[in-house]
Hints:
Elements: H1 12-15, E1 30-41, E2 49-55, E3 59-64, E4 67-75, E5 85-90, E6 102-107, E7 113-119, E8 127-135, H2 148-154, H3 156-166, E9 174-175
Amino acid sequence: MPTEHPHTPTDTARSADVPRATVAVPLGRPVAVLALRYTAMYGPKPFDEALLALLDNGTYKILSPGEDHHGCHVSATDPSGPLRHVAFMSWPSVDWDSNVAAHTLTFDGDTGAFIQELRLPGDPVPRAQHGFAVAVPDPARFDLEARWPALRSAHVDVFDRLRVLAAAPGRDRTTD
């Protein structure tokens, strides 16, 4: 008869007692910061505005009225230049019920528009989102420790530009 070992993967009753391992990942320095204004969004995350900081080591931080989390990204172009296509994987956070989410953003450099595909674990249907993005000047000075209200106030001029872009005729707001 096999010997039972505590905390084996098949012993679900006891596996909850095992401390979860953690990994420390250093955040990089901002090389690009985008202010985003969504015109179509995922219903459970109805935040029109967000700030997305791309960091020099492939990490990112996103903040909005209801989000504040990190993850990693891969850009098809140099993030310090015009962005075209960026893939994101969030790290487990309370924003995603202690799980992950994958996003892919494709930017149109001429109009400032972007389309975003959201994929959630176990959900076979990707969620389409879109909106407009404007670069925040001087990304090296972006305060990664600041909270959303302070950052929103500090970048009010950028969000004003986004509001004008999003309000152009034919750009109705919808939700998914």
